[in-house]
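Work package 3, deliverable 3.1, input record:
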Amino acid sequence: MADVDATLTGNRGLALEEAVIFEQDSPGLSGVDLPEPGPGNDRLGGLGRTGAIGLPGLSEPQVVRHYLRLSRMNYGIDSGLYPLGSCTMKYNPRLNERLARLPGLGGLHPLQPTSTVHGALELIDTCAHWLKVLTGMPGITMAPAAGAHGELVGLMTIRAALEARGDARKRVLVPESAHGTNPASAHACGYAVETIAANVRGRVDVGALKAKLDVDVAAIMLTNPNTCGLFETDIIEIADAVHDAGAFFYCDGANFNAIVGRVRPGDLGIDCMHLNLHKTFSTPHGGGGPGSGPVVLSAPLVPYAPLPVVERRGDGFALVEHAGDSSAHPLGRVKGFHGQFGMFVRALAYMMSLGSDGLKQVAEDAVLNANYLLACLKDTLSVPFEGPCMHEVLFDDSFLKDTGVTTLDFAKAMIDEGFHPMTMYFPLVVHGALLMEPTETESKATLDQFIRTVKGLAERARAGDARHFKEAPRLTPRRRLDETAAARNPVLVWRPPPAQAAE
Amino acid sequence: MRYLPLTDGDRREMLAAIGVGSVDDLFVDVPQEARRDRPVELPEHLGEMEVEHAFAAMAARNLSAADVPSFLGAGAYGHHVPAAVDHLIQRGEFLTSYTPYQPEVSQGTLAYLFEFQTQVALITGMEVANASLYDGATACAEAVTMAARITKRKKVVLSGGLHPHYREVTETMTRFLGIEMAAAEPDWRGGEDLASGVDDGTACVVVQNPAFFGHLTDFTPLADACHAAGALLVVVVTEVVSLGAVRPPGEMGADIVAVEGQSLGNALNFGGPTVGVLAARQKHLRQMPGRLVGETTDVDGRRGFVLTLSTREQHIRREKATSNICTNAGLCALAFTIHLTLLGEVGFARLAALNHARAVRLADRLAGIDGIDVVNDTFFNEFTVRLPKPALAVVDALADRKILGGVPVARLIPGRAELEPLLLVAVTEANTEAHIDALTAALREVL
């Protein structure tokens, strides 16, 4: 198309282009002033680096501008509604960031003498206590680094408990609506994965589940509320059947935000559940981490929890770092040091800010917001399963039938309207899924604007304006990117252009 | 409650629009026996000031390595992080975004991860790097399972110079995968022979440079021995600043490099979060775990970046994925890459030289104290000393004097008499001459 808005620089007002750092190299520049090392012999034993590394030289203002410009090419929760289903993109309180940077917390070395870190151990123990009370579970490991890591650690704990009773089992049952991490974690724990079908109500088919339960099944991994945004109504019957078969009940806690403060997983017969602190407990997603995935445990699993363990002893705390110092049968170490401490600071600050009353309100408002979207959009979009939903709402793409517009196109048009798209094509149990999770930190005004936008776009699609969607997004720093070319000829590191390289 | 925007009026209007009488009607699918009519037994909500006071009280019960002379290392290093790093990573567009699945609204994240991958490849001397893993220890475990997939072999040799946490994590995470682990004895004197343990069933040998005890080794002969037997060499780097001064693993024949990147841009955080990363040879790209960012073009022909080769990953391949990892360490990778961009070629080399020079200075000072042996001939910014007393007791006595004097080897490898006198001492650019004076004076007192 003829671009009447073309500029000489490629910039468009506040939308600024930015080259990669390697193209801004002024050899010899540095953005850090450091003292001269001074004279002296080295002790590198002849293994000193020879030759240049190839890092670019930039001054501090150039570096600040570079990353500021890059940041402006991103959409975050701070920018607007980010209704990514199963990801719980809620507001990340800035108080948490301040507290994590207190020198007495953020400045602690993990191997200081334990006598110098009693406040840190108290913090870990307090965070663990809140999580245990909220889930109604007797034990917890704070070690896992993220949700998927928690899944794997939870399954390994289950496997260690089973093997300790001489019960080698081979299979893990996973519903077809599960997150991809569930089967991947089961595989990484050495188990075969077997899929359980969903019923017409979007829940686990209990009959199909029972038919697969036998003495070879180590565990079932169930997400509750599930990835269709629905509470598993038969969960207690499922738990009983799993336990009768001698297996353990793993719950994927990614969707805990729907029930936090209102329903305790321990009351549902669950043995093991990870909590994504970067979802329910507001620690920032940070463009893909760091996360934190503590795992709560039922009594039979507690002795097999991994190291380290913080224990209350008298007025103080002890840090159990070695199997020999433990009265139990710990799994071993699953991560360096003591878990994602900086995330415990943030999550505990969040929990203390909201309290038992506020956390209950979190679940209620999250569920209310999702059901409001469902009520206002059910006649516009297509609903595969009857409500009420929990904290997220699932639509399929039958409302786009014969429009020539796909779920992906629809999502890209939402980007031009200033919204981050919902989760698409997941879960796999419905065609062209659109999974929306507004979270409790969105106002009614924001939801109303979103609803009007989705309705308007659906109307436009049905009116036959497929081109509007195919060409979207138009207003972003980059338009649709060629992912096929990227995969066919992977360019994963910057290389100087041939002319420059030849110099 | 300050984080909740709905008013009671909003809630009533929304319930009416939904057509239910109360929010309880939205929880009808929860079994009756699990529904609660009152909040859980925890304190009620607090204002920002009250929460601050509670955390300040907990922080006050710690002695911060940031506030006193500290010589702690062993896989976590107290470096000076430039002010711009922490400012930039708190930009809401970086801090509050998700994994960049929608590239059109994530070019910021994707661009910095592409730059991060490039920087990691350059400093390790490798061809490709991923967009981060949880930490160095889990990266080491991922490197081992990756090597097992590539070689289709099950035997792994772990060096006695490997950080004990890395050894333990690798053993735990591969425990149920039928991998046969042979861990060498703690190699505190350096010079272990690993090549003789390599045979045609070996998937990989895992070494660390600088080693846990501080020694530097040219692994070229070991790499040759591995390759001759069809095995891979995995090199772990726990102190990434060393790569500014020391010949990188890629120039020694490493096939996979597992790095802990905390030293660049990231605070100590009591050990987490930090940032792990894997670098490898291009030919092993499709067996790598984790996110990869690649360059491409948009429909208007402009350069842009996307997540790529996703068919390796769990959200596509489920149980056949190369790893179960999803969320990794994006923001810590951002801190790393900003710090390294600030340093640049000259600054990174100078930072490394400064660390080494300070460490040499302290080693020479300690060698002059009666009863202290500096064990290492070679080191970067951390070395092992042998004390005339158990190191745990010495470190406690130093802590009473508000000096964090080092990490006793027995803290990480307990129950071995010959290791009890050994102390790991790390020195960075953050250690002043006054720190060095304070430690040497205090050691003379307590020994």
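The radius of gyration of chain A is 26 Å.
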